[in-house]
Amino acid sequence: MTGNQLQPGNGLRQLLKAGYAVLFVFGLYSFGMAQDVTVRGVVTSEEDGAPLIGANVLVKGTEAGTITDIDGAFSIKAPSDGTLIISYVGYNAQEVPVNGRSRIDAVLGLDLNVIEEVVVVGYGTRKRSDVTGSVVAMEEGELREVPVANPVMALQGRVAGVEIERTSSRPGTGSQIRVRGSRSLGSDESGVNDPLIVLDGIPYSGNLNDINPSDIVNINILKDASATAIYGSRGANGVILITTRRGQQGKARLSYNGYYGISSRLEKYDLWNAEQYADAKQASNFGAPGGVFTPTEIENMVAGRSTDWQDVMYKDGYITNHELGVSGGSENTQYALSLGYFDETTVLPGQEFERISLRVALDQRIGNRIKIGATLMNSVSNADGESANPMFQILTMSPLYNAYNEDGSINELPAVGSVDATTRSPLTLYTPNSWSQDRRRLRTFNNFYGEVEILKGLKYRLNAGLDYWQDEYGQFYASNTPFRNGSGSTAAVRNRDSWSYTIENLLIYNKAFGNHEIEFTGLFSAQEEESNRSGVDASALFADFVQYYNFGLAEATTIPNDPNNPAFQYSRWGLLSYMGRVNYGYQGKY
After folding, report:
1. Are residues 109 and 16 in the same domain?
2. Does residue 260 lie within any of the structural domains?
3. pLDDT surpasses 70 at 508
4. Model pLDDT, residue 186
5. What is the tally of structural domains in the chain?
6. Could you read off the pLDDT of 57-89 as tens digits, one per residue?
7. Residue 143: which domain range?
8. What residues does 469 pair with on adjacent strands?
């Protein structure tokens, strides 16, 4: 609490100001402590001085980024002591310290090695110089520059034509990916505009937070029709190919990587202080029966006391990551093992994402013609507070109310005596057993392959993938929280499990003779997925500590009735696919 001397003033302008602030209550997520500056500049080519359109400008170590416009110009907010990473496909990237400057121009030189770069395309790899479609590759070093739980968030603002947004500021939430915009009229929630994601050659669905970003060695994005055609209609919205780490021949190598960071509010919403609030309330309620102010407000005005609800609610969050890996192998056997732990909290109570991941990759050569291998990727995660939002109460609670009682305990009903007498304090969310939102997720994504060289240049490959995930969600709101305001406790449980398999048969032929080079790829694949979901709601539970664990102690249980999101549902679908592709090259030029 802070002491304030009340002064008369004009409250109308401040009333409008605060009203706009309340309209933008959708969450809070911020990093950093340094003073931000707005940096403007132009990115040009060293070769001819032309502006580079769509160059990526990223604030190193953050998720903040932008791209240059048609004139090669950009504008971005960055810490005065931060560093900008400026990059463009086919050019050498630059890291430029800000050093408090508001103007930074960059001249990028051509990357002479880019034409020999090998990129991953559908069911194979090719030299970039041989690729006619639009393919963008992000390598491990670039991906590690941004500390994120969701691997695709490392691409945000760094790939031209790809829009990536977090669906929420809370940790553990998913992302929305758009490759060259939306291509269908369906809603974003339906997923009709989502790109196809392929992990180590197997189609991947679900939450990308299940993947440890440190296990990824590159991400390739296929953007146009010529690059995605091999995936048929499934590639209509673009394709994201993710390749994970494998073992290399040599002695066993042990590695560790870790970091720890603090997340804190960058700045507060600009709200009224006690004097401004009192002026506005008196002006808007002049002549109201029973008086304008509650006894508590009058007492605090006389004593010069006030409460900044943002100060009492916000706590520093943290982000931590630890990775331990070992890899190595002989000429015939290679292995890679990694164990990861990630944990992130925010400045608001109860919002946290925690993940433990374990991955094993094994490759074995048998003789000169046969090669087999497997990748086992497993993760267990827990996301708390994924939809609860107390910001409305934080920003609308009177600064003349008391946050705490005289004995130091939380004042659960700070608005007693007003029209909001039943409104609970947002501080009750720090009370044990007052609320919970827990999503526990188990996932195991495994793929196996076998490869046989039938003749020189001709080989057969079998890919088999098995994916299983289980999602358990529990929610509880006690009666004394801002979410219920004394109207009784409620609880809900939602469970879902899903499994799928994919089998792919590939025949690959490569032949070079004279100035000619021919490549043929043929594929036949089958995929099937099956899922179950269930859910139930409860109200008026026996005691708060029961939460959502025992609905037998609730006065009433109901089955939710939502046609768009049924509580009980079984679904099953399958897909048979086949394709053929022929590539022809002449003299390495055509």
Report:
1. no
2. no
3. yes
4. 63
5. 3
6. 999 888 788 888 888 999 999 999 999 999 887
7. 36-252
8. 443, 498
